[in-house]
Amino acid sequence: MVLSPSQTDVFVVGSLEQVVTRFSLDNDGFQYIDHRPALGAKGLALTHNGRYLMVASSVESAIIPVFANEPWGNAAPVPAVGEDAACALDECTVYGRQGAYRVSIANGTILQVLEGDFRGGVYSPDGRDLYLSERSSNRLVLVKTGAGDTTSLDPIAITVPDALAISSDGSFLLAAGFCDHDVGLYARNAIDGRLSFIASAFSNRPKPAGCYAQDLPDEDQPRVIRPTSLAIDDSGYVLVSGGSVTAPELAWLRLADGQLDVVSFVDDELEPHLLGTLEFVSTREGQAVPEDSALLEVGSDVDLVDGKAVATLWSAESLVSLQMEANVQLDHVIRAGEHGVDGISAAHELAITHDGLFAYVAPRSQNRIGAFRIQPASGELVPLPATILPIEGDFFGAIGTLDLVANDRELLAADVANPVLHVLRRDTKTGSLSHQRAYQVPDCQGEEVLMVAVRATQDGTRVYASNFQRQGSSCLLRWNRDPITGELEYLAPMTDPFLSGVEGIELSPDDNHLYTANYLSQSVGHYRRDGGELVPQTPFEHPDLYGAEFMQIAPDGEAIWVSVPAHPESSRIVVLRRSPGTGDLSYLQTITTATGAALDGVGGLAVSPDGEVLVAAAHHADAINTFIVAESGQLTLSHVTAASNRLRWVHDVQFENTGAYVYSVSLQASSITQWALHTGDSDGCGSACNYSAR
Predict the structure, then answer these.
(1) What are the pLDDT digits (tens) for 500-514?
(2) Using an 8 Å Cβ cutoff, are 454 and 414 in contact?
(3) Residue 164's beta-bridge partner residues?
(4) Nearest-angstrom CA–CA distance, 582 and 350
(5) Pick from 480, 489, 550: which is nearest to 515 by CA?
(6) Does position 246 have pLDDT exceeding 60, yes or no?
(7) Stated pTM of the model
(8) More confidently predicted of 1 and 217
(9) Where are the beta strands (DSSP E) in 377-461?
(10) How many of the other CB atoms lie within 10 Å of CB of 283?
(11) 610-613 LR contacts (CB < 8 Å, sep 24+)
């Protein structure tokens, strides 16, 4: 089985049916294109430019010009037999139990014949060196393709070498050790082609005894597989297939800095990674195409191009495609608050400056605002003196929400108990705050004011706040803001039946649209800003949105994520697709606890500056969920940061400007916590690592 360099065509050999079948591969899965007979077909290989397909056959091998004409080029029979093949640009090698045959692409003539029982083959990127694994002698054979000189390399530390793969720069070779249940990594000398053993991927993991042993390690022990197929892409990701006939297994590895590390294992069921299965609806030579197994049975193989992988599974008799995940994970770095750091009692919400140098905390039980300097290199939090706010009335104060305005020169703080909107001037160099004025907030249609969210436009000319009412009339509070003096002018509130239980509010990246999460009306409200005025648009309604609270808009404005902590069935995150031009919304996805995420009480959401990672705080679960964001905005769970004292009732999360660190605040723990963001791309480790506090 091979995947074309363009990632659009997949060629699969089915030895029982003795055909080669071609599929197209896209985001919707696999689509059958056509097939052709291939008597005794065993293995496939594409030339480096993807123009020719070498079909290894136990009867008669063939070279097929894949793109020469439609649907296939004419096959050129080759008097060579084998179980598999490897290709360079101008030649291929067919190999198996009966030896190896180097074949010219130009005319199909045999260039060289080698004796042996060969189970793996790979060419160097420049095509000058060919490596073949020879089982009976437990050695690799190096062939210099120019002169045909052969060298039997010393034993290679991997017992019974099977599949081979080579890095795109030709610096490293990988060998699957069938009996070792391991994958060996070797440095390759670019001049003479010789190999030096470095290490193996699974050397520190318990392994079954013997080539065909089925006693896999205990479930509590790290997993290994018996590798039978390897593939590596240009970025260094490695896909390994193996296991037994009844339990196929796949593992992701990463080759980086001369080390081969395990990234993750793919579940046996493959469901989280399954993009498409085969449903044949076409006909073959006038007869109905038989069940899936007829074209795919007998074979376990993988191929990998730019992180997109395709695998045929022996027992499953199916074709699956997989996508390498970034395996994002949070690493606790430092915690502030457990020793009485001022200003974060019952920490409720966060605001981080756009330059990523300062963080401010809203304490739900105090009339003060906590402040921290963020060290540029380490992201470490350095406490600054808290700012005490003047409070009038019967309540001590409950600062519930914050927002920065006017290029971070001012901070807005909503006191949800009094109610008052505070305006504080900010020193952009030191981060210190000075209180300017407290604005009393009138009621909304006679109902008590409860400000849940405050947001200011980027130009600083308008301020909005949500007034939540569980019963009665919710509304949007509005102020004009003088961009020079910072003075606020209260405007008539915005009322709308769909604002029932309005919670979170967010502005689009261009400030032209405003959205509201409506707790009681199972909707996201949509308002177009026309000259500063809000013009109601058709709200987006969906039953999964009942209980909606927080929202987060993607940096490119093409997706909105809504947290729903109080849905009657299960806490959830609802993913909506957004048209940046019109602002209209459509449904994409719902993430629930059934996906493995810890979403009980999910609230605050934050997206990385590049839009590739979303983190979600869940206060009942005392957990932070980390998701990989697809181009469409859909989410794939990557990691759950487990419950701990530092996450007791974690309510809000925020990224700083580089995306390297995440900060969370926890209401019951009265703390702000710094986390480092780790990905498989950054260190080749991802979720396979056991991170410890720095």
Answers:
(1) 889 999 999 999 999
(2) yes
(3) 175
(4) 30
(5) 550
(6) no
(7) 0.58
(8) 1
(9) 381-388, 399-405, 410-415, 420-426, 433-440, 451-456
(10) 9
(11) 610/555, 610/659, 611/554, 611/555, 611/556, 612/326, 613/326, 613/328, 613/638, 613/659, 613/677, 613/679
The pLDDT tens digits of the residues spanning 374-419 come to 988 888 888 888 888 887 655 566 888 999 998 899 999 998 878 8
Print burial letters for 515-554: b (CB count within 10 Å at least 16), e (below 16).
Answer: bbbbbbbbbbbbbebeeeebeebebbbbebbbbbbbbbbb
Closest CA to 135 of 105, 100, 106, 110: 100
Contact assessment for residue 622 and residue 650, using Cβ atoms and an 8 Å cutoff: yes
Residue type at position 528: R
The DSSP call for residue 244 is: -
Structure tokens at 66: 């894949």
Separation between Cα atoms, residue 473 and residue 243, nearest integer Å: 61
Please name which of 270, 272, 276 lies closest in space to residue 25, comparing C-alpha atoms. 276
Instruction: Tell how many helices (H) and how many strands (E) occur in the chain.
Output: 2, 58
Query: Which of 149-163, 310-324, 491-505 ranks highest by mean pLDDT?
Result: 491-505
550 forms bridges with which residues in the sheet? none
Closest alpha carbon to 86 in 193, 163, 182, 194: 163
Query: Could you please report the per-residue DSSP string of 476-529?
Result: EEEEEE-TTT--EEEEEEE--GGGTTEEEEEE-TTSSEEEEEETTTTEEEEEEE
Q: pLDDT digits over 456-505, tens only?
A: 999 999 999 999 887 767 899 999 999 889 999 999 999 888 898 899 99
More confident residue, 324 or 411: 411
Cα 362 to Cα 664: distance, rounded to the nearest angstrom: 12
Residue 143 pLDDT > 50, yes or no?
Answer: yes
